[in-house]
User: Fold this.
Amino acid sequence: MLIADRISHTYPNGVEALRDFSLRVARGQFVAIVGPSGCGKSTLLRIIAGLIQPSAGEVRLDGERITQPSSRIGVMFQDAALLPWRTVEQNIRLPLELGGRAARPVAPATRRSLIAELIHLVGLGGFEQAYPHELSGGMAQRVALARALITRPPVLLLDEPFGALDAMTRENLTALVEGILRETGTTAVMVTHSIAEAVFLADHVVVCSPRPGSVVGNVKVELPRPRAWTMESWPEFGALVGRVRALLTQPTQATARAKLPTQWP
Assistant:
């Protein structure tokens, strides 16, 4: 179980990003977080990853408090951030070379087998020795996905990893991620601005308020798996998108009303 318990965070410049944000993710679940820009979604992921410490509250994974980066939590960002002087294979194995807290030692033969398995899993067979400048944006994100999974983490965090991709590539990659995480049983938390993407991937969609971010609502997604983008035309899919959108617009509308003058000149 991944638990973010009453997380609040204020940056040194005084910006309050999160206020009393709580999240519980059962093992193997996929939770998507949606909300307006600047509501603290990415800050929350960085806190869960142990990259920054919250001003208040704590994160626990299976009872263990997370206070620093751990090999038990993989992270995939919007920018693939591949090292340009390393091949696909070398970029994927980087986390194993760096080690880190709770890192499990991997024998060289096992390492090679694991890298080969992941390259096959993300559909990059034949590109093992390619360099980042030889890859498309979608291919680079496939490398980033494999790199995030190389330590076999029980939890994967996804911070808008498909945001910069074209629509077709984005759909292909979301379907790939859905299949891989379903097969591996990996717990996932994703931040996205796309309501349809959230509904497609998630078991639960958590809606965040404007800054400081807090939980507005939680929409349970009971679409069958495996999922395909043809489901987007289903009435059930459209109804779920509508429920999420309604939760997103409520706080925005309330804020807008609060700013209206009580009397007109």
